[in-house]
Amino acid sequence: MTPELFLEYAVDAAFVMVMLSIGLGFYRIAKGPSLADRVVALDMMTVAIVAFCGLYAIQSGVAAFLDVAIVVALVGFLATVALARFAERTMLREERDETEDAP
Length: 103
Known about the structure:
This protein is mainly α. Helix content is 90%, strand content 0%. The protein is elongated, with a radius of gyration of 19 Å.
């Protein structure tokens, strides 16, 4: 088996695994049950999409897809931080409301 053929098989197998992980992440976003689960699934899907861009750059030989992967990673990081802050504020607001309602 030549190295080029091995690389082609490895990239094809990696594409299948990445697509499977994106599908499982989408299922977790849809199913939940909590906001934290959804945030982690979104972060995992972002990493999988970055991996997809990297694999496509290897397969096609176009290095511009690596730039796309970097942008997706940065946007995914910012989205994760924003959702984590939202979840923290929501939790603090709920705790404050519970203590105010207590007799």
